[in-house]
Amino acid sequence: MTAKTVLEQDLPRGDLWVFGYGSLMWRPGFDFIEKRPAKLIGEHRALCIYSFHHRGTPEKPGLVLGLDRGGACNGVAFRVSEEHRMATIAYLREREQVTTVYREVIRSVWLDGDARERVSALAYVADRSHVQYAGRLSLEAQLHLIRQGHGQSGPNSEYVVSTVEALERDGYRDPGLHRLVVALRKS
């Protein structure tokens, strides 16, 4: 399957903004010159992707986040200098598009939650037609996948806990993810 990416001519010019809503919040892996709280409207953070690589395997999938249709998502926007934009895009494609489960898109995000300060940012949204799209799962099903998941980037539970910790550091609360962390810590 071919990765769905933004054509170079469709990328905004100058510095590049990247929207992070999961592991990019706590492990971006690229150089940036600015990091700001940001809000994306029209898609929400959801544990809706079976992980076959980073946090699971095809035989024992994990569960990772994707941006899914509807709602809004608080996260962070990273500003990457123009001189590093193509290297950053190449890095993100290697990291996020390993199984082509995400569509690379440009989305408007509001910085610091201020409707007056909007930028166009590179983001990765769930491809609902992909075999790894899990959709909406029960809490029990999510816990099962997270507990069993372990991939090249480590245990799935570490991913969920680290994401919740990053959200809390930035002043956000995601009730669904917080419930999962409480349940994971009890087991």
Quick structural gist:
This protein is α+β, with helices and mostly antiparallel strands. It has helices spanning 23-26, 85-96, 139-148, 156-169, 175-186, and strands at residues 16-20, 34-51, 62-80, 102-111, 118-126, 150-151, 154-155. The protein has a single domain, classed as Roll (Hypothetical upf0131 protein ytfp), CATH 3.10.490.
Structural summary, described in words:
This protein is an alpha+beta fold and 187 residues long. It has a single domain, classed as Hypothetical upf0131 protein ytfp (Roll), CATH 3.10.490. 28% of the residues lie in helices and 35% in strands.
Structural class: alpha+beta
Number of strands: 7
Percent of residues in beta strands: 25-35%
Oligomer: single chain
Overall form: globular
H/E element order: EHEEHEEHEEHH
Distance between the termini: 37 Å
What brief labels describe this structure?
single chain, 187 residues, alpha+beta, Hypothetical upf0131 protein ytfp, five-stranded mixed barrel, two-stranded antiparallel ribbon, globular
Tell me the layout of helices and strands.
Elements: E1 16-20, H1 23-26, E2 34-51, E3 62-80, H2 85-96, E4 102-111, E5 118-126, H3 139-148, E6 150-151, E7 154-155, H4 156-169, H5 175-186
Helix pairs in contact: 4-5
